[in-house]
Amino acid sequence: MRYAPTYKKHWLIISLFSLALLLRILHIYFIIPNPFFNHPVGDEKEHYEWALKIIDGDLFSVHKGAFFRSPGYPYFLALLLFITGKNLFLVRILQAIIGSFSVILIYLIAEKKFGKKVSMLSGFISACYPLFVYYNAMLLDTTFYIFLVLLVLFFSLKIEEKKTRLWVFLAGLFMALNCIIRPNLLIFIPFHIVWIASVLVMPAGCRHLYSDLIRKWKFVAVSIIIYLIPIFVIISSITLRNYHLEKDFYLIATNGDLNFYLANNPDKVFTLNLRPGLEWEMFLQTPYLELGENISKKEVQLFWRKKYLEYIKQSPFIFLLDKLVNLYNFFDGYEYREIQMYDYYFKQSPILKIPISFYIISPLSLIGIAFAIRKFRENSLLILFVGVFTFSVILFSVYSRYRLPVVPVLIMFASYTIIRGIEEIREKNSLFVTIVCSIFIMCLFIYLSLKPNEKTMENWWTHYNLGLVYYDEGDFNKAITELKEAEKIRSDNMDTHYVLANVYKKSFRFQEAVGKFKIVLKELKEKYIVYNVIISRIDKEIGECYLKARDSKSAEKYYLEALSFDNGDAVTYNALGIIESYKGNKDKARSLFEDSLKLKPDYQDAKENLKRL
Questions:
Q1: Is 408 inside a domain boundary?
Q2: What CATH number is attached to the domain comprising 544?
Q3: How many CB atoms lie within 10 A of CB 601?
Q4: Percent of the chain at pLDDT above 70?
Q5: Residue 379: Cβ within 10 Å count
Q6: CA dist., res. 43 & res. 57, Å (int)
Q7: Containing H/E element for 48?
Q8: What is the spatial distance between Cα 296 and Cα 308, in angstroms, rounded to a whole number?
Q9: 181 and 69 in one domain?
Q10: 185 vs 333, residue with greater confidence
Q11: What is the mean pLDDT of the chain?
């Protein structure tokens, strides 16, 4: 009979894991018909293509130069693709398994800190929480990052319990892996070190931290070094790799200052709504336009840093007010979806309709944290993590997948509030229950009253990406239909016009293609400081449409304009050579083909055109 509790616990863990995995597998099954299932878009596409290059032999991602974004997840995805033979269905299943293990970690952490009842409720909520299910099926870093965060917290509690260096090393190892997925957790390391030192020197209930620290300083110092070794080795290896390729030091990635600027500048409504495409590409050229085309990545990094520091210096009150708004948004219950298409998946998967919302979790978790602060010593790790992580997110921008890694801990605090509330009801403590219910209802009322409307942006992004997928599949009619829907929602969006122009061109509807390309060209010249290579590209697209439509005169006009912006493009010289051959100017055509081959000696089209003369 002594083993009955352990036996029941094992079955409870198995049941939670099975429930979590079943819901995730069902969700994956429901979204198989989704066009995005085998055609990733946005950040998913970036991760997928990077992972494929790793598998194909570029183990150190030399093609990337210094990492623009953190490399952790693409390498993890490359491992999954290698294991599954590049089968995206199986990759999603493996991520679902990892997500289900995260549920077990949530159960175990909650059990250590709050007891069995809270852990059971936390595990159940986490198993069913729609946002966890949704992101477990996406080729994004969220699943792996949450799993590693929970491992850090779990091993930290093991340090508190066992006070052995093995757990210290494992906590440092998984902290390092977290940091190379999303570097914002770097800010937690000093707080984590202080917490580890405190639990290593202080027995339960002891308050004499300073005297114990003096007495055990060697043990603590060695433990902290053991904690820092994996962090130093893993992060420094990436730093040295970046230095080898760029001859400049970049800790992990180069996009940190850019990301901070996107959320902290006078025009942040525009910059935060930028999406991968032509406008994003134009925006990234800003440093090169202002400083010159031959600047280094370090100079680009410093450019963005200077920009946001100037903004903070000039508008400190607005900056602080914005951070307070971000703090509210972090807890307000609304799912800020960035570039995801949650509503599109919501219509396909009944699992996402499970009625567990952050609107409920958030106020309950805040009440739970307020209760837990009264026993700060016991709950200090979780409270510190929530506070530091929240701070690291609100400095940038609040989106669901950036907030999600702290949600497991918030679920624990919310469950603690519910269980304690039930106990107080049994004890007939009506004052406590009234206060808790009043705070919950007030928070819920405020959250729902100030609920934002992001449907327009999300609907545009869905139609736009469907257009891209159908375009890649060669189904041009469907692509045109979706892109026209996207145009109705955001008629001013340059990327929609540009992709639609390319679809028309592929469909041999050259007149309509030219019309869309001209709209893009006009917007570029009116709205932006024009970057020569991009303008040249649009001119070439228009020239190609006219050339295929046998309008040589109009084609020549745009190819010559392209040449004036970028005189180092072999394709432009080749096209002008074709136009001169149509005119019967063989010598001039030959010279242009030869110029094309000087720029690109292996250019097959120019070689064949030269032979035909």
A1: yes
A2: 1.25.40.10
A3: 10
A4: 94
A5: 21
A6: 22
A7: helix 42-55
A8: 19
A9: yes
A10: 185
A11: 90
Confidence of residue 2 (pLDDT cuts 50, 70, 90): very low
| Residue 455 near residue 463, CB atoms below 8 Å | no
Give the pLDDT of residue 434: 85
pLDDT tens digits along 208-223: 555 666 667 888 899 9
Domain range enclosing 273: 256-329
pLDDT of the residue at 524? 80
Shared-domain flag, residues 501 and 363: no
Residues 413 and 379 in one domain: yes
Q: Is residue 527 part of a domain?
A: yes
**In this structure, are 459 and 406 located in the same domain?**
no
Give the tokens for residue 202: 């202080």
- Do both 429 and 292 map to the same domain? no
Evaluate whether 293 touches 361 at the Cβ level (below 8 Å): no
Examine the fold and report which residue of 449, 474, 504 is the final residue of a domain before the chain moves on. Answer: 449
Q: Is 208 helix (H, G, I), strand (E, B) or coil?
A: coil
Q: 299 and 342 share a domain?
A: no
- The answer to whether residue 435 sits within a structural domain is yes
Which two tokens mark 457? 């942006």
Long-range contacts of 438-441 (CB under 8 A, 24+ apart): 439/363, 439/367, 440/363, 440/364, 440/367
199-208, 276-285, 439-448: lowest mean pLDDT where?
199-208
- DSSP for 267-285 reads THHHHHT--TTHHHHHHHT
User: pLDDT digits over 50-109, tens only?
Assistant: 999 999 999 999 888 899 999 999 999 999 999 999 999 999 999 999 999 999 999 999
* Sign of the Cα pseudo-torsion (474, 478, 480, 485, in order): negative
For 143-194, the DSSP string reads: HHHHHHHHHHHHHHHHHHHH--HHHHHHHHHHHHHHHTT-GGGGGGHHHHHH
Q: Token digits for 496?
A: 């929609």
Check whether 126 has a pLDDT greater than 70: yes
* Predicted pLDDT at 1: 40
Count how many domains the chain has: 3
- Report how far Cα 592 is from the mean position of its chain's Cα atoms: 45
* Mean pLDDT, residues 378-406 taken together: 94
Q: Is residue 235 part of a domain?
A: yes
Asked if residues 69 and 249 have their Cβ atoms less than 8 Å apart, the reply is: no
Last residue of a domain, one of 567, 591, 608: 567
Instruction: Indicate whether 280 and 373 sit together in one domain.
Output: no
Residues 260 and 296 in one domain: yes
What's the pTM? 0.91
Per the document, the length of the chain is 613
